[in-house]
Amino acid sequence: MASLTDLALGLVTLSLFPRLPRDVEGARYWRVAFAWAGVTALVGALYHGFLVGRPQVGEVTWAVMSTMVVLVMSFLLAATVVQVLGRGRALVFWPLRLVGVAAYAVLAATGHPGIAAMMLCEGLTMACVIGLWVWAWLRRHPSGRPMLVAIGVSIAGALLRLVPGAATLLRLDPDSAYHMGQIVGMVLLFRAVAHSRPRPLVGRDPSLA
Known about the structure:
Blueprint: H1 2-16, H2 27-51, H3 55-85, H4 94-109, H5 115-138, H6 144-162, H7 174-194
Helix pairs in contact: 1-2, 1-7, 2-3, 3-4, 3-5, 4-5, 5-6, 6-7
């Protein structure tokens, strides 16, 4: 079931990728994030279906897959910064990403990849993404609320995997419940991006937003 739900997540995400608009700020980053997320889910389907019982191969696959998730987070942050603040401010956030990616790469290379390590390295990144969209929402950015809803659904999906017994409410194992939550989250994220406007907030009168 975990393999099938991960396969469904990958196929849904990749089906949304070519439909993402090209005329919004950060479009390139959004598209790369969706592409990487879709491929990561397909690798996850392979892992859950065929490699989880093979320790050596499975561990390497998990390390690669989790590192791909970290890269997805990098592009999500880049897209958020560009769309909310503008291209000129994106460089400010790249040092933060390099620290997070480097830290997780070290953990993965030393045999400590996993959800806990990922959350440790990516917690600040996710906080930045949420904080920027909260700020955008307060300034009446039309994508602010939809983005926060999509992020909230994705976080809820992650909690189904992390909180003991939460997935049983859906009569699913934790991995499958997580994947189902991420499918809904990716669809909502696509809708938020698709309805974005092609202008950043910085320098604009919030009453005109």
